[in-house]
Amino acid sequence: MEIAKVLDATGLACPMPIVRAKKTMETIGTGEILEIHTTDEGSKSDLTAWAKSGGHELLEQTKEDQVFKFWIKKA
């Protein structure tokens, strides 16, 4: 999977991971993939819902140590 950008939102609490994801998503092209790293437990449901509401595709979601990783394809 080719990543267009990686957003490090670790250490940020809700709603900042979503705010940063929205801003970063505006900088990549349609069909490109944004990788997001967070440590906020709430980001699992928040980013999933945000991707769906924006028409984006959540390709994958994992947890490594205390970091949640998301790969979202821009609509």
TrEMBL record:
InterPro entries: TusA-like, TusA-like_sf. It comes from the Bacteria. PROSITE patterns: UPF0033 (PS01148). Gene3D superfamilies: TusA-like domain (3.30.110.40). Residues 7-31 form the UPF0033 domain. Pfam families: TusA (PF01206). Belongs to the sulfur carrier protein TusA family. This is TusA-related sulfurtransferase. It comes from Virgibacillus alimentarius.
